[in-house]
Write a structure and sequence with these properties.
Layout lengths: L3 H29 L5 H13 L22 E2 L4 E2 H9 L12
Antiparallel strand pairs: 1-2
Helix pairs in contact: 1-2
Length: about 100
């Protein structure tokens, strides 16, 4: 199980990304718009830099929904390999069969 503080920090980042998504998109569009003057584009870049760092989507990290583990994450299942194997061996994932040889 991951540290609760790390899981909560990731949830906080997700909330910030959602909160500032529209504002960030508008500022990025203004900063890359060639029709605007260089001063206006620079102001847009400065406003973009003033936003909280954790509101950037690149700072998000995928975590397992079951255990909170940040590594070995399967996007399709939204869980780590360890949680997946554990649930599969208990028969809680439909269609998944434990392999043995």
């Amino acid at each position: 199980m991951a540290k609760v503080s790390m899981v909560e920090r990731e949830k906080k980042r997700q909330r910030l990304v959602a909160k500032y998504a529209e504002k960030r998109a508008a500022l990025k569009a203004a900063a890359t718009n060639e029709d605007l003057s260089p001063e206006e584009r620079f102001k847009a870049r400065m406003k973009l830099a003033k936003l909280p760092r954790n509101s950037s989507p690149t700072r998000l990290h995928n975590r397992c929904q079951v255990s909170g583990r940040p590594k070995a994450y399967y996007r399709k299942l939204k869980m780590s390999r360890i949680a997946l194997r554990d649930l599969a061996s208990r028969g809680e994932i439909p269609g998944m069969v434990k392999s043995s040889w």
